[in-house]
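Quick start: what a row looks like.
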Amino acid sequence: GFTHALVMDADGQHPAQLIGAFMAASMAAPEAMILGEPLFDASAPRIRLRGRRIANWCTNLETLWAGIPDALFGFRVYPIAPLLEAMRSTRWMRRFDFDPEAAVRLSWRGVPARRLPAPVRYFSAAEGGVSHFNYWHDNVLLTSMYLRLLAGFVLRLPLLIARRLV
């Protein structure tokens, strides 16, 4: 069977020509999750960048700064076995909250993060760009996710600190 899964948003923001680089990085570090590190251009809406700062701060806190470059970036390679374990451990992680929660839960399981820079382009409506982000619903979903994960973080804090000391 397959050992890894490539995840890539289907909205055209991420360059498909980098798939090979993501897969090569995964083969070089099969125990790790390969996380795209966004390189934003002028097309990135400022409100999205501000929201990402909040999401990234929460993710960094809940993982004790384990190297997750961007909580919301949808271009990644996950090792399947620990990802399935993480998914089976919660009824959440099925919608817009998938990528940030997957990164946090895999980090809690000791899966290291590796960064791979990737350009991001936001297309305008005239260029065919369509956002499926529902501002109210998805922000409520993310806020509740971070609150749930904060409780899990507090419970795991001794283990996370112990890992840092080793």
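That is the whole record. The mean pLDDT is 94. Strands lie at 4-8, 33-40, 75-79, 113-120.
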